[in-house]
Structure formats: C-alpha cells, structure tokens
Amino acid sequence: MKKFINAKPNRTATILLGLLPFALLILVYMIGSDARLAINPSDKLLPSFSHMGESMMRMAFEPSRRTGDYLFWQDTLSSLTRLGAGVLIAACIGLLIGTLTGSLPYISASFSPLLTVISLVPPLALLPILFIVVGLGEVSKIALIAIGITPFIARDIQGRTKEIPSEQLVKAQTLGASTSQILIRVILPQIMPKLIDAVRLSLGAGWLFLIAAEAIASTDGLGYRIFLVRRYLSMDVILPYVAWITLLAFLVDYLLRKANQRLFPWNAEVNS
Amino acid sequence: MSLQKTQSMIQAKNIGKRYGNDVILERVNVNVEEGEFITLVGASGCGKSTFLKMILGIETATDGELLLDGKTIPDEPGSDRGIVFQQYSVFPHMTVLENVIAAKGFQKSSITGYLFGKERKVAKAEASDMLEQVGLGHALGRYPHELSGGMKQRLAIAQALICKPRILLLDEPFGALDPGIRADMHALVLDLWRKHKLTVFMVTHDLKEGFYLGSRLWVFDKVRHDPHSPNAYGASITYDLPVGQTSAPLYEEIDNRIRPIPDISIDAQSATPENLS
C-alpha cells in the first residue's frame, strides 16, 4: 500500500472524482427541494429542476409580452457587449500605460505614483460619480468596468514589462535598435500573451462591476434581470441565470486561453 | 602605463569602480589593439564582468577613463560593440531567421525597424548566410525555446555579427554548455574572429578557456587584501599574458590564486588545446 501522498488516481477516476462533488450538490439540492415542495407545493425558495426548465423556456424562447424581446438572449447580448467594451478599453489603456511605465524610467517616474493611488480607489465608490457625470446610460456601465480593471491590468503589465530580461534590451541596442524599435519589436510582442493573461485574471472583477452597475441602473442585462426578479422571489429564474453567467465566464476564459496558445506559439513552453 | 604615441583602440587609464565603500576595480591600466582576442579570467566578484560592462556602456568607471579610439567610450550600448550574454541573448518571440533579420532591421532608422520588399529579401539572404556560417542553416524556422543551449548561443553570435561590430563582447557565453559543445563553440568563435577581423573580449570563469583561446589573457585579482574589510581594495589585472607562451607551473599558480569555482562539467579531455583547432 502506497502512502496516501503518493497515491494518484488514474484518468477515469480523476474525471469521476471531479464530477462527484457536482453530483452530490445536485442531489442535495433535489432532496431539499423535494422535501420543501412536499410540504408546500408553491414554495419559491428551492424550485424543482422542471420548474426552472419551464421558466427558462419562457425566458429564452417566448417573446416578452411587454417588449416583444426574447429576454434571456437580449440580457445576454447586452451584458456581454458591456463587458466586452469595458474590458477592451481597459486592456488598451492598461497595455499602453503598463508597457510605457514598465520600460521608460521617465514615464515611470511621472505616472507610477498616480497609478498606485488610482488603483487604491474602490471603483464602486466611483459609480455615483459616473452616474452623475455621464448619466445612467450604457457609458456609465462600460466606464465602471473599464475604470475598475484598468489599474489592475496596467500594474500587471508594468510588472511583466520589467520582468523582460535587461539582457534583451541591451542586446537590441547593440544591434542598433532605437527606443521605439525596442518598444515595438522586443517588448510589445512579448507582452501580448501576458496581456491576455491579465485580462483573464481581471474578468472576475469585470463581471462583478457589470452586475453591480446593471443592478443599480439598467433596463436589461443578466445582472438587471436577477435583481429585478428578486422582488418576486423568482428563484426559478435567478438560479439558472447564475449558472448561465458562470458558464459564460468559463467559456470566455477558455477561449482566451486557447487564443493565447494559438496566437503565440513561441510562448508554448510558458503556457503548458 | 599608457602609450600615447600609437593610439590603441581601447585605452584604460587608471580605471576604478566603486559602489559606495565597496571597491570592485582599481588602477586598471591597459591598452588593446584592434584584432586582439582577450580572455578575462578571475574569481567571481573580481570585476572582470564589470570591466566588460564598461566597454559595453552599461557601467561607467568611477575613476580614471576608458577610451575607445581616443574618445571616452559611449555610456550606452551601440552597434559597434556586439554582445553575447550567458543567457537571454536572443528574442524568444522570433524564429531563428527572424531574430537575425530583426537585427538587420534595427540598423535602419525607422520607427519600427520592419523591413519590406526588396530590403527584406536582401536582409533575409544575408541572415540565412550568416546562420549557415554559425551552423544553424537547418533550424531557420524554429523558435528559441526549441533550440539547445549551444544553438541559442550560435544564434546570439550570428545576431551580433550581422551588424558587423568592431568589438565582440562575450560574457561567459559557454558557461552553461556541455564540454563537448563548448569545444565546438570555441572553434566557431576562433574561426569567426579571424574571418571577420574582430576584437574580442571574453569573460570566463574557466581558466583553461582563457589559457588556450585567443591571443591574450588577463587575470583579475586583488593586489592588496585587508582581512578585516574585504571590500576595501578592488581587483586589478595581475597577469597580462600573451596566449601560447605560458608554462604549466604558471597555470598552476594562477589557478591556485583565483581558485575558480570547481565546475564538474569541465574535464580535461574536452577542453584541451588540440580540440580547439
């Protein structure tokens, strides 16, 4: 008998062991739901899976009686658009600030302290300011996401830029490279995969700001919907929505990881 | 003693380097003529790399002056002084061929250094030729992480040479390589030194390399010692020997003085002069 610390499950066992907690959770939920529904058939707290299925069919495949939209898809589209726009803006600004402060001492001297201070401001505390300044429309929500994650991306990229071995920068200079050539040909290409990694890490915060902004002021979106139906204790809609948001978050992360491997084959060793 | 009459390519006049109270180098006086191949040996921390970095332009002397063609050496790296470091000398995001073409592109004074059309074609042909010379003709499309340590150093050398530097600086370039590969690299460097009429400075911690490679050997060591304050005095060049006219007892003596870190990868068979061609 091997010591437990040395015992490794084979592949099938690994998959089964991984699925086990999910199965248990679902089982516990079903038992709890059945028990509550047996006492009170109109219980709203733990709806049955069939009930959730019906509600979602209605949300996804029947046009809303009030607006004529397919609410589920409309919510998904709006939320993903906001998240995508916010993250894209943050990535661009973060990349610019991060590479420049990470590589040019003069830029670093003038912007690093500011960046440190800004990154300490809690973004949600800025939401009222955004609502006042740019109104309750799309801009405020996208701006919140962008403001919320730009400092993180910028600081991460700054660090990654500094990690590039100085030997490479010296080497480039001995080959005759100018400052702009070093930035564009040596630093930027090596930072791109790091940028995608930084975006992946910041997406969790991105979803947080998205849902927060939608909960407070919006007329559609995944976050808006779950906060709206909360008033009616509609767990049959909230729970599937949360599961859907989780799945979307997983898919976005997965696609970015795959894109990173595909776009930067020279980074393969780092990725694996 | 520096000789003013015929101006040497590199003149070090009473050079010293201090970090605060720690003296690294002191009273270094040497002249180097065009075309010499100098190996710098010494114990670790003896300032041999510091001296190399002064020529490279990323360190400056705190005392004395270091002249290149009679003028103070520039305080930043330039394309007249090529460098090969022990590692991180190549760009990991470019293929072997791109690494060398990029070096050609950097010679052009444009914002990005990208080459297009005919210019790129010429650069590509030149780069392929140079890679053929260093023995990488079969690996043009590979990325650096797919190369062995020796191949990476060959690439780094090709990159440096495509820019036609006058001076080639090698900072323990073969320190991380296997003995057999090291011997191949010695042959390559000697061959390129003659073919391209370079002036070479090579830092190594392997005394054997220093004794048999190139044309001149410098041993960096401390002349004065204060046991109570080990950093009070810096190292200087204690031996300045023409290669090929040295005796075994002298080798022993220097070996004992600088006490190089025992390196299990170095064995006598692989680094004897016979193998160096």
From TrEMBL, chain A:
Pfam families: BPD_transp_1. It is found in: Cell membrane. Belongs to the binding-protein-dependent transport system permease family. Coiled coil: none annotated. Its main location: membrane. The keyword Membrane applies. The chain crosses the membrane at residues 12-32, 83-107, 114-133, 198-217, 237-256. CDD domains: TM_PBP2 (cd06261). Keywords: Cell membrane, Membrane, Transmembrane, Transmembrane helix, Transport. Gene3D superfamilies: MetI-like. The keyword Membrane applies. GO terms for cellular component: plasma membrane. GO terms for biological process: transmembrane transport. Residues 76-256 form the ABC transmembrane type-1 domain. PANTHER family: ABC TRANSPORTER PERMEASE PROTEIN MJ0413-RELATED, ALKANE SULFONATE ABC TRANSPORTER-RELATED, MEMBRANE SUBUNIT. It is a multi-pass membrane protein. This is ABC transporter permease. PROSITE patterns: ABC_TM1 (PS50928).
TrEMBL record, chain B:
It comes from the Bacteria. Gene3D superfamilies: P-loop containing nucleotide triphosphate hydrolases (3.40.50.300). GO terms for molecular function: ATP binding; ATP hydrolysis activity. Pfam families: ABC_tran. Keywords: ATP-binding, Nucleotide-binding, Transport. Residues 10-247 form the ABC transporter domain. PROSITE patterns: ABC_TRANSPORTER_1 (PS00211), ABC_TRANSPORTER_2 (PS50893). InterPro entries: AAA+_ATPase (IPR003593), ABC_SmlMolc_Importer (IPR050093), ABC_transporter-like_ATP-bd (IPR003439), ABC_transporter-like_CS (IPR017871), P-loop_NTPase (IPR027417). This is ABC transporter ATP-binding protein.
